[in-house]
Amino acid sequence: MSDWYGDHPVTGLDDADPHLAHLQYFPVKSLDPEPRDRATLAAEGALAGDREWAILDRPADDPYDPAAADVGGSGDYVNGKKTDAVHRLRSTFHPRDAGGPGVTLREQGTDESDSRRFALADAGDDEAAVHADLNARLSEFFGRAVSVRRDASGQHDDRERHGPTVVSTATLREVAAWFDFDLESARRRFRANVEVGGVPPFWEDCLFADADEAVRFRVGEVELVGIHPCQRCVVPGRDPDTGEETPDFREAFVRRREETIPSWTAGDRFDHAFRLMVNTRVPEESAGETVAVGDPVERLGTEAV
Q1: How confident is the model at residue 171 (pLDDT cuts 50, 70, 90)?
Q2: Directed axis angle between helix 169-179 and helix 249-260, to 10°?
Q3: Which residues neighbour 43 within 8 Å (Cβ) at sequence distance 6 or greater?
Q4: Helix %, strand %, coil % for the chain, to 5?
Q5: pLDDT per residue over 175-214, tens digit each?
Q6: Is 63 inside a domain boundary?
Q7: Residue 231 above 70 pLDDT?
Q8: What is the pLDDT, as a whole number, of residue 98?
């Protein structure tokens, strides 16, 4: 296992030079990522704007209870855990300063001329009115009544550890090699917010410890807290363009993860090998601060939780 930084392979912690190599966020939950050069940390979410909009499995005129929206596969979100159809939607987000917020959608395999732009509701908007055309298009695509809802604090898979998710570029390359897909496919399968370069595969496992501990780390001048290795679901085992299943993905992943586990992967939180990426939280003092591609990354130490 090795990653390359400059002209030298990074094979262990001693020759690592951790830095923020790639940033991405997901304005519409479960749709395509949007790369960023810099991003603001949010107090109640990951990166500002991450999962601000989500598709829900209900008509637009149904009462909406945010507490009832569950991402575990049994609740209201339309996501990859519940349907592979979501992988076949291509999306491009249009931010507020570019005539948005809005999103352009087309179905995988169709021509760009079939793309259509839709408005996304902003603060104070009548969501049902703004999203009427978008809800109709999505309902037609999924074959049932769905609707888009906005939550400025984000709509995240982990309701408690909802800071930016962290993985290393080398980890994604390593896993991609196991299954013969490329780095970009790995990024879209595992959907991390923050990617660390200049480190060996699975370096991010340094950012969690035992269940009664958390790990402080710094990105640039901003501190974050690493909590938990992320348990994976069915999504990484699917082609991110088509939703096609990779045969025996979970079994092969677990076997290779066990074969390549580094010495620094420790802690009782890592209780099985179908885990990859680290869940974090944003300390109160870091909310509103900015991180940027190129920022150095430094592990500071553990603290009790």
Answers
A1: very high
A2: 130
A3: 282, 284, 287, 288
A4: 25, 30, 45
A5: 999 999 999 999 999 999 999 999 999 999 999 999 999 9
A6: yes
A7: yes
A8: 85
pLDDT of residue 11: 64
The residue segments making up the domain with residue 63 are: 53-150
**Residue 129: CB atoms within 10 Å:** 11
Side chain identity at residue 296, one-letter code: P
Question: Left if phi > 0, otherwise alpha if psi is -120 to 50, otherwise beta: which for 134?
Answer: alpha
Task: Show the CA angle centred on residue 7, arms to residues 6 and 9, nearest 5°.
Answer: 95
Same domain, 175 and 131: no
* Residues constituting the chain: 305
What distance in Å separates the CA atoms of residue 216 and residue 210, rounded to the nearest whole number? 13
Tokens of 294: 């190129």
Q: Is 47 contained in some domain?
A: no
Task: With CA atoms as reference, report the closest residue to 279 among 204, 175, 176.
Answer: 204
For residues 81 and 119, membership in a common domain is answered with yes
pLDDT in tens, 17-76: 999 999 999 999 999 999 999 999 998 778 999 999 999 998 877 765 555 555 444 448
Token couple for 67: 């507490």
Question: Contact at 8 Å (CB) between 22 and 293?
Answer: yes
- Pairwise CA distance, residues 219 & 137, whole Å: 40
Give the span between the Cα atoms of 266 and 257, in whole angstroms.
14
Q: Is 37 exposed, middle or buried (0-12, 13-18, 19+ CB in 10 A)?
A: exposed
Q: Among 247, 231, 257, 221, which residue's Cα sits nearest to residue 41? A: 221
Give the whole-angstrom CA distance, residue 161 versus residue 227: 7
Calculate the CA dihedral of residues 103, 123, 157, 61 and round it to 10 degrees: -80
